[in-house]
């Protein structure tokens, strides 16, 4: 019995160290900001968040950057909250590019997000597998604390290795 306890304690310590290394305990920086104009090149998706097609679109966006078909950073637009709409999501998955003049890869289209809107913005460092959940939770907690109403419209991007940003417009 004692041996099992030590094994479980050792495993727990290893998992705790791994979670810390991946940025699990890093607190996001959350604030109200003014959005900037963004150009997102990508592909639209509507369906379940569990559908493999959505995963393929994420992989295609990473491939576009790896093959230098576009210069930019991974970025996505979400037009609804799947937690509120029964696992169905409307999204645009792709790459945030510096300007609208870029030649787009086959199958990609361009969407422009106008700037000048008040948004709740969360930024954090950590592993990309942990960042989205952490950033969205921080935004929702901040909005609740500050009594802000948010739109069901989300923009997320990953400007550097192990860095993520999410912006959600504030309802006017």
UniProtKB/TrEMBL annotation:
Residues 28-171 form the AraC effector-binding domain. Keywords: Membrane, Transmembrane, Transmembrane helix. The keyword DNA damage does not apply. It holds the Pfam family GyrI-like. The chain crosses the membrane at residues 5-22. Coiled coil: none annotated. Gene3D superfamilies: Regulatory factor, effector binding domain. The keyword Transmembrane applies. InterPro entries: AraC_E-bd (IPR010499), GyrI-like (IPR029442), Reg_factor_effector_dom_sf (IPR011256). This is GyrI-like domain-containing protein. It comes from Pontibacter aydingkolensis. The lineage of its organism: Bacteria, Pseudomonadati, Bacteroidota, Cytophagia, Cytophagales.
